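Exercise 7. Given the encoded structure of a 384-residue chain, write a plausible sequence.
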């Protein structure tokens, strides 16, 4: 008989229960008026408000002081997609939103048929602490992770049309979702994928026309472009840029870091395409999940659920993990998942963890290690 934490049903129950309990906690804290913002689920509120602002023909990327504490930074299509949640009261909408972000990535993990059931469950438990962080912030990271994993599963099953649609959806949720597209190069029918990706991107670009005029939609994309440009210059986040600055005092242009990251990604795709066996394909997708976090200048703590899933998938790609591999995975879990918690004294967090972006550093080290192995083809194993 399987131990309780090895049972898939228990895992689904824990994920669902966590999403509901986190939602109830946030609603209760807001009701008790003991939070610094109008609500304790401000990200959800920003997403939901974006639909109303879109419906009213406003600049959805403007500052709405008194309504929300931060700017909306996603696509017009995502704002339209929040219509069902806008129609619901928060005591229903917030739990449903968190359930979507908790259960979609879990469902997507279970669609990766190359993983054994044990490996699927391991990955889910490994990223669970970071999933809680994301849910507590009512973020969209779980949804983003789920879409990327679904594109992986679709490409593995030779469903190029579905894969292209999911990649486009991920892109119009968070722009870095588009970087899943190059990985289609290692699969057959890449031209079919590319053509359908263009079709799907056109669809998501134009879908707000169901409630917006063409002139207004063009203006929205112009406003969005200005916001993204200003946002890119404003912060460094828990990223490669932040690591270089805090550890070495280096401040290279962000564009240079972005170009380096993109070229590195393309190189790993090219090298994997020369030997696209399952372990290499799995390691490549794992690398991507870490890549989209550490090269994201806006990466923050809730974003790391994506990177933690990548770390777990990488470990599953190893036929015989060595001590170095296991140790590196442990460092990723300790520093990325545990350092922000009360398990680490507050003084340590304030003096070391936060100033030196220790949450990101092991993930950066792991990404370098995976990249070296893929580029130099150090893992020439036979397909399992």
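Solution.
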């Amino acid at each position: 008989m399987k131990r309780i934490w090895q049972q898939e049903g228990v895992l689904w129950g824990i994920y669902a229960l966590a999403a509901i309990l986190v939602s109830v906690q946030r609603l209760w804290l807001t009701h008790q008026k003991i939070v610094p913002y109008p609500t304790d689920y401000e990200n959800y509120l920003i997403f939901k408000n974006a639909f109303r602002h879109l419906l009213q023909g406003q600049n959805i990327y403007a500052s709405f002081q008194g309504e929300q504490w931060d700017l909306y930074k996603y696509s017009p299509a995502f704002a339209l997609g929040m219509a069902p949640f806008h129609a619901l009261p928060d005591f229903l909408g917030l739990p449903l939103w968190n359930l979507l972000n908790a259960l979609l990535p879990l469902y997507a993990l279970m669609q990766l048929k190359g993983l054994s059931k044990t490996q699927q469950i391991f990955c889910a438990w490994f990223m669970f602490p970071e999933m809680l962080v994301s849910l507590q912030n009512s973020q969209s990271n779980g949804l983003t992770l789920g879409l990327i994993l679904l594109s992986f599963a679709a490409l593995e099953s030779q469903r190029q049309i579905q894969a292209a649609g999911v990649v486009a959806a991920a892109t119009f949720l968070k722009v870095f979702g588009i970087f899943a597209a190059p990985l289609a190069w290692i699969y057959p029918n890449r031209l079919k994928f590319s053509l359908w990706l263009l079709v799907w991107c056109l669809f998501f670009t134009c879908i707000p026309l169901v409630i917006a005029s063409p002139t207004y939609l063009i203006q929205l994309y112009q406003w969005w472009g200005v916001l993204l440009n200003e946002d890119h210059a404003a912060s460094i986040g828990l990223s490669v840029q932040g690591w270089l600055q805090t550890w070495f005092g280096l401040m290279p242009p962000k564009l240079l870091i972005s170009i380096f990251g993109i070229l590195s990604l393309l190189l790993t795709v090219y090298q994997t395409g020369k030997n696209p066996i399952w372990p290499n394909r799995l390691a490549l997708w794992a690398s991507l999940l870490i890549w989209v976090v550490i090269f994201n200048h806006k990466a923050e703590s809730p974003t790391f659920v994506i990177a933690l899933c990548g770390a777990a998938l990488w470990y599953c790609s190893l036929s015989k993990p060595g001590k170095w591999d296991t140790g590196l995975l442990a460092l990723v879990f300790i520093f990325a998942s545990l350092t922000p918690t009360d398990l680490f004294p507050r003084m340590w967090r304030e003096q070391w963890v936060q100033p030196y972006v220790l949450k990101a550093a092991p993930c950066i080290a792991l990404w370098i290690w995976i990249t070296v192995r893929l580029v130099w083809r150090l893992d020439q194993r036979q397909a399992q």
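Remark. The two ends are 26 Å apart (CA to CA). Students should compare their own answers with the one above.
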